[in-house]
């Protein structure tokens, strides 16, 4: 089952990630879609691998879209701001306690790097 897109505000998502009771929480930031297809080639490459990685896992995973090209490129885009600090798409953010780590662009669809970043499935 594909991951579900969050419609929560950036501030609500940040609060949720910071206060999650799970060991790690994740946020996937993709470029928005045009006619059902992301304008970002790296996002299109990453999506099936990210979906497969998180199927049947217990971690909190939220997916958001950073906007169309013109929205994404604006300095005030909320996903570019702290605590997200996204610089490139796609970005996978892992929050563990107070630590925010990022896997960015082609590293998101590098299976070995994705596996190492997400870690083993918890029982």
TrEMBL record:
GO MF entries: protein-disulfide reductase [NAD(P)H] activity
UniProt cross-references to SUPFAM superfamilies, sorted A to Z: Thioredoxin-like
InterPro entries linked: Thioredoxin-like_sf, TXNDC17-like, TXNDC17_dom
Short name of any one Pfam family annotated for the protein: TXD17-like_Trx
Domain called Thioredoxin: residue spans: 18-117
Highest taxon of source: Eukaryota
One CC-aspect GO term: cytosol
Family of the protein in this entry: Belongs to the thioredoxin family.
Protein name stated in the entry: Thioredoxin-like protein
């Amino acid at each position: 089952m594909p991951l579900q897109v969050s419609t929560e505000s950036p501030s609500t998502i940040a609060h949720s990630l910071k206060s999650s009771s799970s060991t790690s929480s994740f946020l996937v930031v993709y470029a928005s879609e045009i006619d059902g297809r992301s304008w970002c080639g790296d996002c299109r490459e990453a999506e099936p691998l990210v979906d497969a990685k998180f199927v049947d896992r217990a971690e909190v995973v939220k997916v958001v879209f950073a906007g169309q090209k013109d929205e994404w490129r604006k300095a005030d885009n909320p996903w570019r701001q702290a605590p997200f600090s996204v610089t490139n798409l796609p970005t996978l953010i892992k929050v563990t306690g107070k630590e925010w780590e990022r896997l960015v662009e082609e590293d998101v669809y590098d299976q070995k790097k994705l596996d190492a970043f997400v870690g083993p499935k918890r029982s």
